[in-house]
Amino acid sequence: MPEKKFPCRLGILVVVCILLLSCMLFPACADTDTPAYEGNQSGIGDSSGDSSSGNGSGSALLPQKYIRTARLTAYCTDLSELLRRVRTETDAVGGWISDESTGGEEGARFASLTVRVPAERLDAFLSALDGTGTISRKSVSATDVSGSYMDAQSWVTALEAEYTELLNLYEKAGQANVDATSVSTLLSIRQRITEVLTELTYYQDLLDSYDDQIAYSTVYLSVREDAAEALPPLQRAGQGFLNCLSGVGDFFTAVFVFLVSASPVLVLLAAVAVAVILILRRRKARTRKDSGAGEEHV
User: Fold this and answer.
1) Domain spanning 66-146+217-230 has what CATH number?
2) Which of 48, 126, 220, 225 is deepest in the core (most CB within 10 A)?
3) What pLDDT score was predicted for residue 269?
4) pLDDT mean over 93-100
5) Could you tell me the sign of the dihedral formed by the alpha carbons of 152, 157, 162, 164, in that order?
6) Beta bridge partners of 134
7) pLDDT of 41-73, one tens digit each?
8) Angle, CA 118 vertex, CA 100 and CA 64 arms, to 5°
9) For strand 66-76 and strand 216-225, is the pairing parallel, antiparallel, or unpaired?
């Protein structure tokens, strides 16, 4: 009997141990699953947040950079008055005249001006010039330099960082023991520093030029003093008609003056012409008389 009961007790003990181990493992599994799930949920939240922020930054438009330029051609009756008006309007919008040239004679003078005005005041400036003389041609253009501007800005940032790093390397190489290797390194670093400074100056000047052209628009103004062209269309038509009548009168006046001035010569030529005509008529009459007499004799 003892031999028969021992295996049964041993089996019960094994089953009890298995149950105890199962009870101990299930809470542990539950604990490990829950944080893992929570961590996954947290990860999903972070991922969606990054994605939304990324999409927001990607959809954000780059700052637009435009260079605006205007070209005007005008006629006027008084060039001095027009130039005075242009200077007044330029000062009113906070601009300046960067270039000016004039020429010609009184009544037919001309001028070329290059005016710089704040970009946000360009339209107001052009509207103010509409009543100045007669504008025959007007054009306004806007050039988008956003991409070129951003490229130049990126180059400046990269070159500045490289310049700082090169200076640090140069100082460290100079503090090391001087030998052939260190001298060669110093020369190479110095040469690269010079190249970086040259490139940095170029791109910085390019950015400065862009900033200046973006902030201040350029207006090219060409003016010619011409009283007829400066008039409105109807007045120009009337003036043209009067000029035509004046031209006809001038023609007949010139003919009269010519006839009076050349009258002695004309009288002499008329006398010679009359004498020639009379001689020809006499010869013709005599020829007819002789031919008639011959016919009667026959």
Assistant:
1) 3.30.70
2) 225
3) 81
4) 95
5) positive
6) 75
7) 333 333 333 433 334 443 346 678 999 999 999
8) 125
9) parallel
